[in-house]
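Data availability (excerpt). The following record was deposited with the supplementary files.
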Amino acid sequence: MLFGIIAIVVVLTVILTAVFKVHPFSSLLFSAFPVSIGSGMPLLEVVESVNDGYGSIMKSIVIVAGTIIGVILEKSLLHRCLLRLPLVYMQRIH
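Predicted structure:
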């Protein structure tokens, strides 16, 4: 039973990252919950376990959020617009 849940979650993770372009960290985080619940862990321990596991890796949600925002900016090419904004503002002043 647990092997089947893990196989489904692995396929789900691949689909989330490859097809829907979800950030890999987010898809792994979402996938951790069904595996933990499927293994028979109580719900309170699931949250603690996921928090301890990912918390020890990342240490701060600020690092994770910054990384995700950076990747989004890079993929959307919005960073080019943000870099040009001060130049446009300076040209309007003069």
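Summary of structural features: The mean pLDDT is 81.
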